[in-house]
């Protein structure tokens, strides 16, 4: 990909360039980790000048933060909308999670590296600013479902939330082995099949 010319981009080109940089950063941060990924490497792979990355996002940590917000904000908005809706069915929550990871398949690995593992660069920020609106919001929603008689009474909302996140996200963390060794397909058809089986698992396990 040829490098973009130097100078400030025209307005109608800015959003495309930002998305291009964010997608590249998401991939490289997930593959190599935050510490091992430089702004220059991101810029080179995105086909832009490093100065443009700094112009849009400031420093590397701010870029990583924006990558997470860019990919997870729609999920947070959908979960927030469920708080005002009549239902928050586990299978609908699972569908939202799968839709996010299907669109951003590198995010599960990136979250594992920079949030879940000790010393992750985004652990504190994610815990304080993002988690409460994502997985942290699920136990209350599932508790409401249980109170309405739509979940089994022996189900625990917090544990159910963790299990839903696990079955939706872990396959993408384990993709490097799940695809070639176990034979799980991650094309559109394979993800649809995964979603169908997760729905059946939830219906038989915790839903009424």
How does this structure look, described?
This protein is mainly alpha-helical and 208 residues long. It has two domains: 1-58, Homeodomain-like (Arc Repressor Mutant, subunit A), CATH 1.10.10.60; 68-205, Tetracycline Repressor, domain 2. Helices cover 71% and strands 0% of the residues. It contains eleven helices and no strands. The chain has helices at 11-32, 39-46, 50-57, 60-83, 90-103, 107-116, 123-130, 138-147, 157-173, 175-182, 188-205. The longest helix is centred in the middle third of the chain and has 24 residues, at 60-83. The chain is globular. The N and C termini lie far apart (52 Å). Mean pLDDT is 94; it is low at 1-8.
Structure described in brief:
With 208 residues, the protein is mainly α. Helices cover 71% and strands 0% of the residues.
Key traits:
single chain; 208 residues; mainly alpha; Arc Repressor Mutant, subunit A; Tetracycline Repressor, domain 2; globular
Give the arrangement of secondary structure elements.
Layout: H1 11-32, H2 39-46, H3 50-57, H4 60-83, H5 90-103, H6 107-116, H7 123-130, H8 138-147, H9 157-173, H10 175-182, H11 188-205
Helix pairs in contact: 1-2, 1-4, 1-6, 2-3, 4-5, 5-9, 5-11, 8-9
Can you identify the CATH superfamily of the largest domain?
Tetracycline Repressor, domain 2
Weakly predicted, low-confidence segments? 1-8
Number of helices: 11
Beta-strand level of the residues, as a percent range?
under 5%
Q: Per CATH, what is the topology of the largest domain? A: Tetracycline Repressor, domain 2
Shape: globular
User: Sheet with the most strands?
Assistant: none
The CATH architecture name of the largest domain reads Orthogonal Bundle
Q: Measured on Cα atoms, how large is the radius of gyration?
A: 19 Å
- Total strands: the figure is 0
């Amino acid at each position: 990909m040829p490098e973009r010319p130097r100078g400030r981009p025209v307005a109608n080109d800015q959003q495309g360039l930002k998305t291009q940089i964010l997608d590249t950063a998401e991939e490289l941060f997930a593959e190599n980790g935050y510490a091992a990924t430089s702004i220059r490497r991101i810029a080179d792979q995105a086909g832009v000048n490093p100065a443009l990355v700094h112009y849009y996002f400031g420093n590397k940590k701010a870029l990583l933060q924006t990558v997470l917000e860019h990919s997870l904000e729609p999920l947070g908005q959908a979960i927030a909308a469920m708080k005002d809706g009549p239902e928050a069915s586990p299978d609908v929550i699972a569908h939202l999670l799968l839709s996010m990871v299907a669109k951003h398949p590198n995010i599960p690995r990136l979250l594992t590296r920079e949030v879940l593992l000790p010393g992750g660069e985004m652990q504190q920020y994610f815990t304080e600013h993002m988690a409460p609106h994502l997985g942290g919001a699920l136990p209350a929603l599932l508790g409401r479902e249980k109170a309405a008689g739509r979940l089994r009474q022996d189900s625990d909302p917090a544990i159910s939330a963790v299990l839903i996140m696990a079955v939706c996200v872990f396959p993408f963390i384990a993709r490097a082995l799940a695809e070639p060794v176990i034979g799980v397909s991650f094309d559109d058809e394979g993800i649809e099949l995964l979603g169908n089986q997760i729905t059946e698992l939830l219906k038989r396990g915790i839903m009424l």
